[in-house]
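Hey, sorry to bother you again with one of my protein questions. I've been staring at a protein lately and its backbone has me curious. I owe you a coffee for this, so here goes:
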Amino acid sequence: MADKMVTALFNTLMGMGTVFLVLIFISLVIMLFKYIPAFQVRLENRKKRKKEESLQLLSQRPAPKRPALVIDEETRGQAHKEEENLIHDGELVAVITAAILASMGGPVSKDKLVVRSIKRVQTKNRR
């Protein structure tokens, strides 16, 4: 009988000790919550600095040069038509951007969307 009482007492103390250790751990975690806002501010500042540095690097980079085109008399008319089409590229980019934003299903920041290139896709039905 004494052995059973010792075992029961030991199990009780182990259970209570485990509960108190878990409660102490939880209280320490709750005490660390006061440092979370400072950590978030540091992360935001780091992101802003990286963004500013990337913008600064982009502004320092020279614009890419386009290769010179050699146009003979036959293709001069076609080149003139292409120049007229280039005028509306800004409108085309705006329309495509609006379509992409609409397909994403919600408001998207302008910083998160970059149109790198627009290519025409030839289909079988198109003439």
About this structure: Residues 88-119 form one domain. The mean pLDDT is 76. The first helix runs from residue 2 to 31.
